[in-house]
Amino acid sequence: MKNKWIITLAAMSLAACTSAQTWIWYPGDYEIWLGNQMNNRRTERGAFFPPFWKTDSHYVVVEFSKQLNLSEPEEIFIAAEGKYNVKLDGKLQFGMPETLLLPAGRHNLNIKVWNQSTPPAIYVKGKTVNSDATWRVTYEDKEWIDESGKASDTSATIYMDAGCWNFDGATERPSQFQLMRTPHQPTSRTAQPEGGILYDFGKETFGYLTLKNLSGKGIIDIYYGESPEEAKDKVYCETLDKLQLEPGQVTDLAIRRTSPLSSSENGRTSSSSFSSSSSSENEYTLENSKAFRYVYITHEPGVQIGEVAMQYEYLPEEYRGNFRCNDEELNRIWEVGAYTMHLTTREFFIDGIKRDRWVWSGDAIQSYLMNYYLFFDSESVKRTIWLLRGKDPVTSHSNTIMDYTFYWFLSVYDYYLYSGDRQFVNQLYPRMQTMMDYVLGRTNRNGMVEGMSGDWVFVDWADGYLDKKGELSFEQVLFCRSLETMALCAGLVGDRTNQQKYEKLAAALKAKLETTFWNASKQALVHNSINGVQSDAVTRYANMFSVFFNYLSPEKQQAIKHSVLLNDSILKITTPYMRFYELEALCALGEQETVMQEMKAYWGGMLKEGATSFWEKYNPEESGTQHLSMYGRPYGKSLCHAWGASPIYLIGKYYLGVKPVKEGYKEFSITPVLGGLKWMEGSVPTPNGNIHIYMDRRTVKVRATEGKGYLTIKSRRQPKANIGTVEKIDENTWRLRIDTPEERIVTGLKD
Q1: SS3 256
Q2: Where is 601: in which H helix or E strand?
Q3: pLDDT tens-digit profile of 679-716?
Q4: pLDDT (tens digit, 9 = 90+) per residue, 346-389?
């Protein structure tokens, strides 16, 4: 069955939400509910494994209201997810009307919905009266009735603008949302000496296994693996299924659910090719999706399996960003990074597809940034931010991790800068305030944060000791940036009092960073301070963040480059998670050629190990099955992890050189750097357009279909442009204004 609303979901925006009728709900509620569905699909060796942080839920009663001014009578159609009533000008209408005739004139329309199981939502369609993001919603109307029987006006009620996505038809109910599916076949099947068959699907994938032409009676054991070693290891593979086949039915023994065998494929598909593919009698599709490349299946003698296939499950995304260059290895790194990013872009941006399948704030902020250079899917960013925040009261850090709370703050302003969506900041700001109140309530007498009871101070997975005691310089740098973010967002919503408060707190903390952590002899920020005493340890984390946050003088940034970032004696980073930031710091310092070599060595190293998606962690010094182990488990590492796709962001921002200067690319900068390449070409998406760049050693071509900005290039002589004048801004640095969509061609560059 095809669904046009699923196919176009990635392109939705608030503007589209208000252009026609659509299902609406209390903002954040649907996102939290949908996230709960996804976060609770995790299993470990067949056992249910829910998240270990506080799980919020939707409000069960929500009122939707709209003020109307009709020039003529109008009939509206009403649908709701839940039990509902309708008030027109304060008067209750009979029953739960599906249609309602609105008289001409000014009116107040109120619809109140109760739904315990899924978020209350409504759909209203008329000639001019349609449900959209301009409706106001509240979870408590605080109505009261006096002794005369008169109902009060609404009192002390906080209304929000309605939330919405792209459920634009009456039958396209939000609670029925599913990802897309298409059929995939294994590339090979190999009988194993010990019995059973190993199926290889060719590359890392995600979806539902389908067993066809089933007959007989007995137990079927299914073992999944990102490697053949994992799939064939019955004792230690991370994910598995066990089925009991009986005539005409299959019982999934993990969830104790019996289903009849079907005669056609189950699930939603993206094209008619699925329904036209050959169907088979007696087939069964497992109910829980899994990540794998290999599947090893054994069964009792009484069972016969004719064919094994899968339904690949995915979120439809348009690859709006692209990149090509003269280096085929780098091209392959970009392609695998994009595939990794797509695999981990689901209802939300998740971490890895095999093990956690959860939404983690530290993973998500990197996914957002990569997304801005690949899909520019604003709706997935907003859904993920809403889910991670949850609801008041705040009882712990995001995902229980202190640093992940700070990433959450940073992600909000990042989203505004790239998208220009101020409405989202307005909606979220109250929850930003209460989250920051929680953080400020846990500071020490120096105004700094330290790990307290219940806090997970993460920083990174490290192949070496990371002291988490005392005041960590890394945490203070993130805390300071979060306070600055709060000040910026307070300014956006017009909260001048708190803007000044956050600015003062940020300035005070920033002033303490150098005095507390800078060590002149080490020419670096030390890792931590305990009871006012600097430790001797120097790690990369605070140092690299202080560079691209521009927290230190240019001289100290250059010192850090040599004393820390290019110093092999400092504890090395072995996760793509922190390599993301390490390489960003080097790019910010103009070291694109060094970073190019590092990308090719690190991500190219994974490709040489056979990676078809990028990993949670990679240590080049390991070999063989050592690359599969993590957390003390032989296959604990995820071989498809969102933070592994870092090159997408690095290439877009620091090689193609595109970034927004003002919100929503109203103004942008383009500073392309070859970094050792002979030529490169690519596009970076903007909210409603794109910026295309071509560069070789003598020529730059730029076309921008949205916004205005500057192209900045390095050349030892003055280049020429086909449109406009190239002006000198510094020694060997030139700038060209881009203010129309015509292609600029700049020639005559000299290294």
Answers
A1: coil
A2: helix 592-608
A3: 999 999 999 999 999 999 999 999 999 999 999 999 99
A4: 999 999 999 999 999 999 999 999 999 999 999 999 999 999 99
The CA distances from residue 612 to 180, 228, 357, 414, 640, in Å, are 21, 14, 18, 30, 8
- 10 Å Cβ neighbour count for 506? 20
Phi-psi region of 397 (alpha: psi -120 to 50; beta: other; left: phi over 0): beta
Residue 65, classed as helix, strand or coil, is: strand
Is omega for the bond preceding 393 within 30 degrees of 0, making it cis?
yes
Does 396 have pLDDT greater than 70?
Answer: yes
Structure tokens at 211: 């067993």
Please give the Cα distance from 401 to 456 (Å, whole number): 5
Question: Which residues contact residue 297 at a Cβ distance below 8 angstroms, ignoring those fewer than 6 apart?
Answer: 196, 197, 199, 220, 221, 222, 223, 305, 308
Contact 473, 519 (CB under 8 A): no
Q: Model pTM?
A: 0.94
Element spanning 695, H or E: strand 689-696
Tell me the CA end-to-end span of the chain in Å, nearest whole number: 57
Structure tokens at 4: 């046009």
Residue 220 identity (one-letter amino acid): I
How are strands ordered across the β-sheet holding 471-472?
A: 471-472, 528-530, 533-534
Tokens of 326: 């003269």
Q: Please, which residues have CB within 8 angstroms of residue 733's CB and are 6 or more apart in sequence?
A: 712, 713, 714
β-strand pairing of 74-81 with 720-721:
unpaired
How far is residue 712's CA from residue 744's CA, in Å, rounded to a whole number? 12
- Spatial CB neighbours of 730, under 8 Å, sequence gap ≥ 6: none
Answer whether 130's CB lies under 8 Å from 20's CB. yes
Identify the three-state secondary structure at position 110.
strand
* Pairing outcome for strands 528-530 and 99-102: unpaired
